Amino acid sequence: MKPIDKLVMKRKVFSDDLIIHSQTIKSLVYFDLPEKDFDISQCDLSFNILRHKENERDFKVQLFLQLEMFKIIVEGHYEVSDKIDKDQSNKIIEIAGLTTLIPFLRHSILNVTSGTKEGGIHLPLINLNNLIKNQMEENKSKPKPKKKTDPKTKSSTKSKKPE
């Protein structure tokens, strides 16, 4: 992956290269299990990047963190400025959404757990390169949906998971 161009995000203090529309907690589950220690380093952490179909600069990032007793999903809605060219825009989408949403996840976990017996859990530092690499490997290993032929029309359709 090539580095982001030096002109991008070079502003002195604030940057308008990435617009933050929202950052929210989408789902939160916490069980108080007195016999279990809250070991955040043993969590599963994954993410999705969702691109808008018509506006390729508009995207959402979802972070999923799960333990036996704790599960949180946070989502950020972002947009890359029109001033940024398409190649740089794609690089910003790959990295900036995650780097912007991780501190929100960290703060959300601390706020939620501050009133519990743990007294506030701090999410450890995250190796972003490894997170992305692991997610890419996991996505490659997932089976792709098979196309099925509809006997009525004899056209191929994507298989759907039951809801």
From TrEMBL:
Region described as Disordered: 135-163
Basic residues bias (residue ranges): 154-163
Entry-linked InterPro entries: SecB-like_sf
Gene3D superfamilies, per the entry: SecB-like
Protein name as catalogued: Preprotein translocase subunit SecB
Species of origin: Arenibacter certesii
